[in-house]
Amino acid sequence: MQESFTELEPEDYSASIPFPGTNRTWGNQDLINSIFWKESLRKPNKENELPKAGSAEWFMHAEKLRYSHYGKWVPKLLEFTKHTGERILCIGSGLGTDWIQYAKNGAEVWVTTTKDAQDEIIRQNFQTRNLTLNLRKLSKQGILFSNCSFDVVLLNDFCKEEITQEHLSSEIQRVLKPGGKLLSLSQSLYNINYFLKKVFPTLGNQKNQDPNFYTASELKTIFAFCQESRVHKRHLQRNDLPPLFRWIPIPLIERLVGKHLVFKGFKPLSQAIPVLQAA
Is residue 85 part of a domain? Predict the structure, then answer.
C-alpha cells in the first residue's frame, strides 16, 4: 500500500520565504524575464517595456496576456469558476497566475512547487492579491499530503528532476479523493513547429527548446488510473503560421497543431474501497 503522509496544520505548510523589497534588484533578470514570458504564453517582446518586475502591474500584465486573445481557452479548460468551495492542489512552477484564479473564485488552494520554482516570486504574486500562499516543496518522497486530501489536482510541471512520471502519477492518484479530478497542462509534441519541420524544412527553423513534450496518448498512459479522460489541444498565435495559412481561423487550427495539451480525468469512485479497508 502507498504511504500515507500525516496532514499538517496550514501554518506548517506556509513556508516563511523572504521576498526582496521592490527597491532591490531580483537576482537573475534573464531568468525572471523568461518566467514572465512563459507565464504569459507569449514570445518575448523587447519592443514593449514591461512594468517593474515584482510590482502589482507586472503580475497583472502577465495575467492579462495569459488570458487574452490567443489565451482565451485557458480559463475555460482549466475551469477556474467551477470549483468554488473545493480543495485544490496546484503542482508546478511559474508565477502562480492560474492558481490565484481558483483562490479568487472561492477554492481552498494549496501549492506544491518544483525544485526550480521561484517561490518568493509566487508568494509576492499572491500577496499583491491579498491572498495567502500555502506552499510545500515537492519531495523525493512525493507529494507531502495525506491520502484523499484534494477534490482537484492541477499539474503544470512534470518535475522530472525530483520524481519520475510514474511516481508523480501514483502520488496524484493517492492525494485525490475518489471521484476527484485531475487537470494537467503540458506542451504538445505534435505542434506547429513539428509539422513545419516535417512538411516545410526551410520554414521549420524554430526548435523545441524544452524536452518535456507529450502526445495525447502518452498523457493517457501516464495517468492510466483516470477514467473518462480527455485531452484538448490548444494555443497558437497567428504569427506561428506561415503566411500562406494565416487565413485559417485560430480556434480551428489550434486544435490540430496547438502548442499545449490539457488533460482531464477522474479518479474512479471505486478506489475509495481500498482506502477504507486500509483504515
Answer: yes
